[in-house]
């Protein structure tokens, strides 16, 4: 049985002072021994958040990484830096990074390989645009994104990856995919993993849904057989996140 994983993606929100306050507010609310909880925070918030979650079951995550070890890459953050700071999970392939920072499938593949080399737990995002959904190519597109991202990744490493299905049209828009739409794609993702790595890895790998997930829709989404968690943007910045973590009680 796969353990659920509920991760907050704070995006470019929270100054270090605000981050510390938010983590402190969430501390008594975010408790569920049945779920892996992760805060993926801006680099500059890693230390203040780490201080607050020390001794709790919350895992520390980052929102990005660079694929080189070190050197003249002004403004970038290396895997070793994140490792030393205590980061365990790292989001890569988010549609915002693909769109605004021109990250290609090739870059995302390099980042995935590098994260696995350094024993991180990557959260690999994929998802279609509205135009792609309307053109009926959703699954073809996602299958391609996954095949390119996983190039050169061994089966034993593949199982360490969490895949986040985030339809671009549902991110920050208040439009959630219907439960049926989300489950259909998450099942398709599992089938793709099966094609690439076989049944055992496909059954082991965790697949999250992300895109306007909130306390109202999470219970239904998380009850689906192929949805193993959520990657939560807006609602991860509020006490509501605690309710999502305890979704069974909603
Ligand atoms: O992009 C997301 C998480 O990575 C989803 O963001 P929202 O929950 O704000 O729609």
Automatic annotation (TrEMBL):
Pathway: Carbohydrate biosynthesis; gluconeogenesis; Carbohydrate degradation; glycolysis; D-glyceraldehyde 3-phosphate from glycerone phosphate: step 1/1. Coiled coil: none annotated. The active site is at residues 94, 166. One of its GO terms (molecular function) is triose-phosphate isomerase activity. Transmembrane segments: none annotated. Homodimer. This is Triosephosphate isomerase. It comes from Stomatobaculum longum. The lineage of its organism: Bacteria, Bacillati, Bacillota, Clostridia, Lachnospirales.
